[in-house]
Amino acid sequence: MCSHVTVLDHSVVQHHLTCLRDRSTAAADFRRHMEVLAVLLLSEATRTLPTQSVTVETPLETAAGRHLAGRVAAVPILRAGLIFTRPLLDLVPQAEVWHLGMYRDEQTAQPVHYYQKLPAGDPPDVALVLDPMLATGGSAGEAVRLLRQRGIGDVRMVSVIAAPEGISCLRNQHPDVPVFCCAIDRELNDRRFICPGLGDAGDRLFGT
Ligand code: PRP
């Protein structure tokens, strides 16, 4: 669609995404499929994290290698983004987790804040905004705005499904933010749900 969007082209992704879309998938399985996709998405979104040269002693000799360097903030948007937190911490154990609580107002589809744990002080080098759904783009755009206010330059958006409307909105507001997703769906419906989508990710993850 455009250069700042990476859509994972992968048979395993297609399989787990299709299971997520299936309305008969129960919450426990839904979480498992989502976590698999989180690992695959995050491995792409973290591909260019900063590293530094190190040497380690193998059982045989000295080997040159690289370790992750710098500070990384994982920013899950509650509720659905929480499912990405554990996979991100598995990949980047030193990451900080900055929680951001927002829900969409049902009438206006505008994001409503209810919780923020975005520490002040020196900004991290990279922030990864985690939310399985990018619908209108309102929540993602607001999250990026708050992170930019904290002085973070390198902000990356990680979603499972994106709507074309959400991608356009985010690109207009924050053209330098790359998006990593598993699929770009057809459109939003009149309730601003992604179609064909997978329903309400938060409700399906948490059985509500
Ligand atoms: C969903 C989703 C995103 C947001 C996407 O959250 O998880 O956070 O909507 O929509 P947008 O791109 O139009 O802003 P929801 O409001 O359903 O809250 P929940 O995760 O607590 O269910």
Summarize the structure.
This protein is 31% helix and 29% strand. By secondary structure, the protein is of the alpha/beta class. The structure holds 1-O-pyrophosphono-5-O-phosphono-alpha-D-ribofuranose.
Keywords:
eight-stranded mixed beta sheet, three-stranded parallel beta sheet, alpha/beta, 208 residues, Rossmann fold, 6 helices, binds 1-O-pyrophosphono-5-O-phosphono-alpha-D-ribofuranose
Give an account of the 3D structure.
- This protein has 208 residues and is of the alpha/beta class.
- It has one domain: 3-Layer(aba) Sandwich (Rossmann fold), CATH 3.40.50.
- The chain is 31% helix and 29% strand.
- The chain is built from six helices and 15 strands.
- It has helices at 11-21, 27-45, 85-91, 138-149, 164-173, 201-206, and strands at residues 5-7, 51-57, 62-68, 72-78, 96-97, 100-104, 111-116, 126-130, 133-134, 154-158, 161-162, 179-181, 183-184, 187-188, 194-195.
- Strands 1, 4, 5, 6, 7, 8, 10 and 12 form an eight-stranded mixed β-sheet that branches.
- A hairpin with a 4-residue loop joins strand 2 (51-57) and strand 3 (62-68).
- Helix 1 (11-21) packs antiparallel against helix 2 (27-45) and helix 2 packs parallel to helix 3 (85-91).
- The radius of gyration is 17 Å and the shape is globular.
- 36% of the residues are buried.
- The chain binds 1-O-pyrophosphono-5-O-phosphono-alpha-D-ribofuranose.
